[in-house]
Each structure stands twice: as C-alpha cells, then as structure tokens.
Amino acid sequence: MHNLGMEDGSAAPPRRHGDAASAERQATLHDVARTAGVSQATASRVLNGSTRNVRQENVARVLAAAAELNYTPHLSAQAIARGATNTAALVVSGVDDPYFSSIAGGVTQAAEAAGLIVTMAVVDRSPERELQIVRTLRGMRPRAIILTGSRIDGTDTRDALVEELDAYRRAGGSVVLVSQYDLPFHTVSIDNYGGARQLARALVGLGYRRFAVVRAHAALRTSRDRCEGFVDGLREFNIDVEERFVFESEFSRRGGYAAGRELARQGLGDTELVVAVSDVMAIGAMTAFRDAGLVPGRDIAVAGFDDIGPAVDVVPELTSVTVPLRQVGLCAMELALSDDDVSRVVPISTNVVLRDSTPRR
Fold first, then answer.
1. 348 touches 327 (CB < 8 A)
2. Over the stretch 273-297, which tens digit does the pLDDT of each residue have?
3. 10-20 pLDDT per residue, tens
4. CATH number, position 177
C-alpha cells in the first residue's frame, strides 16, 4: 500500500411518587415527561406554550407533573424550544466538496419550508474542531444541530462530543448525524459498504479483472467501508487487489491527483481499472492520468463513488455509485424537526451507474 501523506415515541413509565432521589435534585424536563407519561418533546412544547398540536389531556398531565415536581424551566432550553434563534446548524467537513454542498441543498430546502435559517460551520475533518464547534453552537441555541461527514476511529473526542450533544438535546435541541451509526442520536446512514460491493460486481461483469484502489486513511470510516465493500465484492469472483496497488491519500481531489500521479509514475502494469472511494478523488486521478499522457476510458478505466454533479461533466463521464445526496439532506432536516425521543437510523440505499469511463472490455 502507498501512503502519500496527503491530506411522539412511546414514553417511559411514569415516575413513582415520593422518589427520594428526585426530591434531592432539581427536576428536569425529562422528569416532567416521565411523570406525565408523555414524550420529552411533548412536555417541552407544553411548558413553552406551544400546545396547538398537543392533546388537551396531555397538556393537563404535563402541567400537573411540573407543579408536583416544582419544575423550573431552563431559560436557554426555553429559547431552543420556542425557536427564538430560528436557526438550524449544519456542520460539514468542507465547503468545496460537491458531496457536502448537495446535502446542504437538501437541508436548506427543508429548513426554509419550516421557517428556519441554516447556518454552516466547517470542521475540515478534524474531530477536535468538530467538538469545539458543537460547544460553541450550544451557546448559540439553534433549533437543531446536523453533523455530516464520516466518523473517524481512534480519536479521544468521542465521549466529550456525545456529552456535549446529549446536554444540548436534553435542553430541547435536536441532533442528527449524516454518517455511520456510531453515536446515540438520529442518524441518516448511507450504505457505503453495500454500494461498493455492487460496484465490484458490476465492473467484473464488464470484463475487468485487475484493479487499483485509491482510498483515504483507514481511520476514516466512510473510506474504509467503501474500500472493504469493493474488495469483498471482488473476492466473490476470486479476485484480489495487490497491496502495491492500494494508494492511500487525502480524501479530496488533490489526494486523488497525487495517487493518480504516483500510479502513472510507477507504470500501470496489468492494471485495467482504478477505483477511488469518492468521485472527487476519481476526478483528481483522471487529471493526473491526462497529465501523464494517458487517456481515461481508453488507456485506463476509472470509477468513483457518490455520483456528484461533476461526474457527468468530465470526459469521459464517470462511472459511480449514486448516493441521493439532496434526499439525504432533506431526510436529515425532517428527522431534526420530528418529535421522536428515541434515536432513529434511516438507511439510504445506493445504486451503481455505469458510464463511459469504464467501457466494456
């Protein structure tokens, strides 16, 4: 392997009266909801005056529970529940990647329909910066925080991030991830592994047998899932990718260019097709091949993943795995606006689309 150094669910049972533990601390919104036998979202709406869509019997139960527990509303929680800031926060890995801009388009469409304004923050694939941004956002009190981008294994920020997001959620905010299901919050989960496995089968069906793979660091779970899915798909046909033809690089167009340049420098050998774990990496590799005097689609076939808009603008058009990115954004915002207290995982299926960059052999 080459490392290029680049970069209203069901409520919990009612609380027993006289619970000593509850008496020793200040009651929370969760306590009120549990005592009333309703969801936390319903309790929040009642206590903040938004009772239009709440049954009258539940209004009465929540108010009675709040009185019994001497509940004092948290002012910042009230601001979130009332939507005083009228914003939703979208956290992305980068703004120059069509993957994230397409998701942002879906998020913005759904937010505007709900009367919300979307603010955006960029973490540049840094877990530390992601944590810092979430801490800052809590103070800004958006109605929802949506985190996009792959989870990264081996970081020491995971527990702190969960704690920050959980505190924000307890205060009445909504949390949604667009990623692998790794944190205990609503998640829109893309079938990266399954899509890559389908891609392997489709390419073998076109007659290809000798592959190179361009991937990001294995700690980046999106890249790892796609790479593993593709390799496992090839193994169904007793095809392996030699370690020397696995190129690890930055998860970007620049990283794809660096990998393509290195492959061209050392010579293609018997390699028939280069698969990159994202379209932007694949497009970068195609540019490197052209700079080396090779013609993509003729001298070397290329495939990517995501099916971003530019995939059909390059020549030849890029074979890819379609991810309905705008739908992903819409789904994320819809989850953020839902009243579900129990975390949900919404799977997003993927599809292979074959184009001229991988002609039949």
1. yes
2. 999 999 999 999 999 999 999 999 9
3. 344 444 444 44
4. 3.40.50.2300
